Amino acid sequence: MSEEYGNDYVTLTDENGNELELEHLDTLEYNGNTYFAFIPAEMQLEESYELIIMKSEEENGEEILVTLDDEDELDEMFQIFSERLEETFEDEMPEE
Fold first, then answer.
1. Cα 16 from Cα 3, distance rounded (Å)
2. CA torsion sign, 10 to 37 to 41 to 92?
3. Does the N-terminal or the C-terminal CB of the chain have fewer CB atoms within 10 Å?
């Protein structure tokens, strides 16, 4: 997959040439890897959503984003990102 970074949005192109626009929510360095959390760009944070978690790998000297094939790794990263994002949005909510 190739990626284009701009503001908080990324357009990914898969191996079939299909493009998907995602909103970048968070980046995390963990166990020597860089992980990214996204949601589809057309979604609102208030809506129910499934995080899209990818990690950075180097291929032929170029940085690419790849999906996580290891279920344990995916589960662990989902838990970490969910907690981080929950804390972030709780801090941004105005107190009544």
1. 14
2. negative
3. C
